[in-house]
Structure formats: C-alpha cells, structure tokens
Specification:
Layout (H helix, E strand, L loop, with lengths): L10 E7 L2 E5 L2 E5 L9 H4 L7 E8 L1 H15 L1
Antiparallel strand pairs: 1-4, 2-3
C-alpha cells in the first residue's frame, strides 16, 4: 500500500506598490495614486522593479493546523 504525507504550508504575503514621481520646479514629490506620473524612487536609484509585487513575510501556523484537521476529517 502506498502512503502519502500531506503537509500544508500557508504563506502570508504583503503587496508592495512602488511610488511614482511627479516632477516640478520646486523638487520631487512621490505619490502612489497617480498612475500617469513618470519616474519613481527605484528608477531614480537605477533599479528596475515592477509597479507592484508580493513578497512573503511569514507563515500562518493556525491556518496550517486547521487545514490539517479538515484534511484528516475528510479522510476518516
């Protein structure tokens, strides 16, 4: 008989939205809400990153445990 192990992993992620620059005579201001503005802090620093992206900040142990319980209940 084949045996399988199920180990749910739940990642908690955060969305990052890059700032956009609005240039003017008096200097630079950064706003997230103006999609038509050109430039950004990252572009000014010579970096290229997407306008928004997700990155993991940890795991949800409680939800992982709950998923294990639900899976075990279904297998019984």
């Amino acid at each position: 008989a084949d045996r399988f192990v199920v180990a749910p992993k739940v990642l908690v992620e955060r969305q990052a939205i890059t700032d956009r620059r609005v240039s003017g005579v008096l200097g630079r201001a950064y706003f997230r809400s103006d999609p038509d503005a050109s430039g950004s802090r990252s572009v000014d620093a010579g970096e290229t990153i997407p306008d928004s992206y997700w990155y993991a900040i940890g795991r949800d142990d409680a939800l992982e445990s709950r998923l294990v319980e639900l899976i075990n209940d279904r297998l019984r």
